[in-house]
Amino acid sequence: MAARFLTAEWRELVMLNWEADPAILASRVPRGTELDFQGGRTFVSVVGFLFLRTRVLGVPIPLHRNFEELNLRFYVRRGDRRGVVFVKEIVPKIAIASTARALYNEPYARHPMRHIAAPDRVQYEFRKEGLWQGLAGTRRGKPAPLEAGSREEFIVEHYWGYTRQRDGGTIEYRVEHPKWSVWPALTSELTLDAASLYGVEFGYLNRRPPDSAFIAEGSPVHVYRGVRIV
Q: What is each CA distance from 68 to 19, 22, 158, in whole angstroms?
């Protein structure tokens, strides 16, 4: 088994989810994997969350323990391993972004970020070209366990990551965490320019509301070293 590479807590995850035409994802699917469908549909998610108490190889890195991330991702599988592929990941720390790009070819970018994590509202924003943009969701009450067969369970229950390498190969890594509880988002907002940030094929994210939106409580996580599969 691969060794642990990173330990942290992922908390206060805002997850906005849209059905996606498989044709716009096909060219991004890493070799050795295939799109993961729920009921004949595949999805993309814009996700914002907090990285807390981060350690790399067991070592806390000064000034890089607590920070925000915002990403666009979609869902694939390799056999019975259900995983995530990132289109773009944004963090506020240049060392995080440059290390992830260098070691794993993960599509990280660095921008200043800020967040709100209040009892009734969670919001993540980054600043690009002087403009703050991001996503938000509102909630009420206490989170509930994931319902079997639900859209929320499909989105959350992916415990592998896949990254295309510069030579066309693929790295697979495992993500370990307990099942999360979630709040349904009472309202949601997407204020980023999806076409500019992710490509014109994703511009539709700004033209219609998400098919589902929720806020996940999160938990401690372990991310294991990547292994090349092809």
A: 25, 29, 21
Q: Is residue 227 part of a domain?
A: no
What does pTM read for this prediction? 0.96
* CA-wise closest residue to 10 among 174, 184, 221, 183: 221
At residue 179, the pLDDT reads 96
Tokens 């510069």, located at residue? 166
Work out how many domains the chain is built from and give that number: 1
| Mean pLDDT, residues 14-31 | 98
- Work out the percent of the chain whose per-residue pLDDT is above 70: 100
Rounded CA-CA distance 48/57 in Å is 24
CA dist 117 → 94, 137, 143 (Å) = 23, 10, 15
Give the pair of three-digit tokens for residue 38.
């729920």
Q: What is the tens place of the pLDDT at every residue in 96-127?
A: 888 778 878 889 999 999 999 999 999 999 99
Domain that holds residue 63: 4-221
Residue ranges in the chain assigned as alpha helix (H): 22-25, 94-104, 151-156, 194-198
Counting Cα atoms < 13 Å in the Cβ hemisphere of 38 gives 20
Question: In the structure, what pLDDT confidence band is assigned to residue 88 with cuts at 50, 70 and 90?
Answer: very high
94 located within any domain:
yes
Kindly state whether residue 122 falls inside one of the protein's structural domains. yes
Other C-beta atoms lying within 10 Å of the C-beta of residue 187: 11
Residue 197 maps to which CATH number?
A: 2.40.400.10
Ramachandran angles phi, psi of 190, nearest 5°: -125, 110
